[in-house]
Amino acid sequence: MAEKELSQTDSAYARLEFMVIFQQLEPGAMYSEKQLGEMLNMGRTPIREALQKLAWEQMVNIYPRRGIQIPVVTMETQLKLLEVRRPIEVLCAELAAEKATPTQKAQMEKLAEGIMVCARNHDDESFFYHLRQVHYELVAASRNEYIRQAMRPLQGLSRRFWFKHKEDNTEHPATLHAEVMKAVSSGDKIKAAQAANKVIDYLYEFTLKQLTY
C-alpha cells in the first residue's frame, strides 16, 4: 500500500474513532461506507481499511451488505473488560518500566505534564488525544506485540465508556494516568504496577457509579 494511502487510512481511523467516542456516530445506528466517506470527505479505500481496524477493536460492527453499526456501550461489558484489562495493564506497566528507551521515557514525562494540563483546562478533546497517546506509548514501551494486540481493544473500549458517561463533576483520572507515566519514566516497576492498579480501581468505581444514574 502506498504511503499516501496509509496516511489516509490512519487519518480515517483517528477521525472515525473520535466520532464513535464522542457519539457523533449514534450508538445502535447503521451507516454505510459511502455515508462515512462523505462525512469525512474521503474515498472508500481508507474508510474500509479504518473500519477493519475499528472492527477488530470492537468499536464498530461490520455487517456485509447491511452496513456498519455502532455498538451500544453497557456497564456489564465494561466490567467484564476491566477484569481482563487489570492483569494485562499491570504487566504492561511493569515491562514498560523495565524496557522503555530514554526517548520513550522523555515522551512519557511530556505526556504526564500534557494530560494534566488538559484536565485543568477541562479540554475533553485534547484529553482524549493525550490519553490515546498515553495508551499507545505504554504498550509500545512494553516491547511485546501480544500485549499490544490484547490492550488496543481493551483501552479503546474503556475510553469510549468513560467519555460516554462522564459528567462535568466526574472525578478526573488525569493524575492517575500521569502517575503511571512518571513511574515508567523513572524505571520503577513496583510503582508502575501500583499506579496501573489505581487506574483500574478508578475505572471500576466509575463504572459502578453508573448504577445510581
**Which bin fits the share of residues in helices?**
over 70%
Let me know the largest β-sheet: 3 strands, antiparallel
| Molecular shape | globular
CATH homology group of the largest domain: GntR ligand-binding domain-like
Q: What is the alpha-carbon Rg in Å?
A: 17 Å
Strand order of the largest sheet: 1-3-2
- State the CATH architecture of the largest domain: Up-down Bundle
List the helices and strands and how they pair.
Elements: H1 3-21, E1 30-31, H2 33-40, H3 44-56, E2 61-63, E3 67-69, H4 75-99, H5 102-120, H6 124-142, H7 145-165, H8 174-186, H9 189-209
Antiparallel strand pairs: 1-3, 2-3
Structural key phrases:
Four Helix Bundle (Hemerythrin (Met), subunit A), transcription, GntR_C, Arc Repressor Mutant, subunit A, 213 residues, mainly alpha
Short overview:
This protein has 213 residues and is mainly alpha-helical.
Question: Can you give a write-up of this model?
Answer:
- By secondary structure, this protein is mostly helical.
- It folds into 2 domains: 3-69, Winged helix-like DNA-binding domain superfamily/Winged helix DNA-binding domain (Arc Repressor Mutant, subunit A, Orthogonal Bundle), CATH 1.10.10.10; 75-212, GntR ligand-binding domain-like (Four Helix Bundle (Hemerythrin (Met), subunit A), Up-down Bundle), CATH 1.20.120.530.
- Helices cover 74% and strands 4% of the residues.
- It has 9 helices and 3 strands; from the N terminus they run H-E-H-H-E-E-H-H-H-H-H-H.
- A 3-stranded antiparallel sheet has the order 1-3-2.
- A hairpin with a 3-residue loop joins strand 2 and strand 3.
- The protein is globular.
